[in-house]
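Async update (no meeting this week)

Hi team, since we skipped the sync, here's where things stand on the single-chain job. The sequence we agreed to prioritize is pasted below, unchanged from the tracker. I ran it this morning and attached the output directly underneath so nobody has to dig for it. Comments welcome in thread, and please keep replies under the output.
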Amino acid sequence: MIMGSNVALADLSDDVGSVVVSLGWASPTGEGDADVSVLLLDSNGKVRSDDDFYFYNHPVAADGSVQLLGKTPTADGSEDRISFDLTAVPAGIDRIVVTASRYDGARFGELEDVRITLADAAGESLLRFAVDHAGSVTAVIFGELYRRGEEWKFRAVGQGYETGLAGLASDFGVDVEDDAAAETEAALEAAEADERAEAAIPAPAPEPAGEPAGRAPLEAVPSPRRPEDEAGEPRKPAARPRTAKKKVVLPRTAKKTLAENDSWRQARLFPVSVLKTDRDRETRATSVLLAVMAQVPEFSRRLTAGFGAPAGRMETFTEVSLPHGESPRRPDGVIRVERAGKLWTALVETKTNGNALKADQVQAYMDIAARRGYEAVITLTNDVALEGSPLVDVKIDKRRKHKVALWHLSWAEVAYQAQMLIRHEGVGNAAHAWLLQELLHYLQHENSGCHGFQNMGPAWVPVRNGIDEETLCQGDARALEVVESWERLVRQVCLRLGGELGQKVLPVQRAKRGTDPKERRNRLADQLCLDGRLQAELRIDGTPGVLTLGADLRTGKLRTGIDVPAPAQGYPLSWAKRLVRRLAEAPADLHVETLVDSEAGGPRGTLERLRPEPADLLPKDNNTRITGFRLSLLKSMGSGRGNAETGFIRSVDDAVHRFYTNVVVHLDTPTASRTPSKERAAAG
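Output:
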């Protein structure tokens, strides 16, 4: 589409009662980002109240008409998805405005491929609009959905705001508390205090968390340190619309147990001791998940809104028999949602442990769904689906008017959504929180079979041996399999860490690496054959830089690292002293390197050697400009392909966890970087 053009949704698809709008962009550095928001406007072009404004701190409408689904990794970065149930939009709403804004002075002109796309309930893309020449604006109206009689239309807008989200929201009647000036002043005072500080300040210790039976995914990990932690005073609330709502969030630390000794086991709603076979695990996991979804609408909406399901009365079923030729088929589960007398139905096929989906089985369910007028087939396994690389190939009969969407969830995504709700975002009441906690305990138990991605595949050992013996050649299909498994593992690490932190953790894909996922993976596979290394980058909200992760298959070492930019003010010696103080509780073998703007490179050494002499981090040439500091840890790599204690997957997860909890959490967030999501200013 071009700017100003419009189209009726009904002309593009027969299935537009629910649509998913995606806002995306690419960043040359891999670090650029923006926040999406939605405004519901009446006939006067204004919100009826602040509750009609949806953003990061108010993501879901009570009636299910709007839900911000969060970020999804793409080939060149990530995109934000928003689910709209157009049948649930109140009659008094004439327009739905979709916007995005940048923060801390960043501009949309710094991003590439800024666009909006819209897909129907079956997931088929219907339209695309590219916002060109964004320039110096800090907020953009990408497009709007609006009523014309009984139908909905979409208009490509592309209007920019130099006043950021605050100016945009105010124009549409949102009441914004503008404390941006006070925020800036407080940040400057904190920066001056940092320069004057000379005494070491202890870092807060992580709070312990109760572990379920078996191995918990991660210990409780604290969020990154903020400048206000050091000052001892809470930061003033940042400018934001008054839309936050109080919900039930379970405490991170368990209450003291009343058991007489450690041998007593707490009674659980979903026991796992009786699970003996894979069939038992699949049946129990399906029943547990679907039962909780039917009772906790906040949770079910998080899982199904992106699949085009409406908000309504949900019922779930297991072991349903459906006719298919001479022998009936029994999908593991069925989800049905009723709204305004209409039904939305999805068949569910689950696998646990390392069991893979069977293409013929999924194909049969797709055919059954098409014949019976069902909307979707949802597969649920420990595997993680990759863009451009489906888990199973199915044939779609395009002669059929009724379209069936095929969606995939991993058990890691289910656990992530449950953890985000009960630990960070909150649910409607204590009973819902308890149900989600019991579900999470079940999924994390070692006997459930729902542990997420847990096998690097049959190509792992041959590729590792080929690299060690220098016999692996470019173009080897096994190297591509390892690269795909590595990408799945990295995405699961992001889910686990993000669920613990309540922060967005996403894999970084640099724009210069290309946009086609298959071509990018082929290049990475060739690079693996040449140098024997697997590389990844993770962006974590509230941290001073991108966390790097590398696996060197030649040396058997894992390297985790982060580049910390040099402060904008102060003196190099003060920077070095402050960094060493911040890392008082970091491992002694942490490598610290000074980044400089010369080819010669800066000084480097272990933290153990630098603690008594921080000045050793300074270049001998006083004219050499320091640009930052690189922190990195080395760890031995597991060799096995599975998720055992000595396996590669476990070693990668442990390496990221160790680096974050022992290093990253103690670092300052620079004043010029993004502030916490719950306190971020809406003033652009």
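Quick observations from my side:
The mean pLDDT is 83.
The first helix runs from residue 164 to 171.
Reply here if anything looks off.
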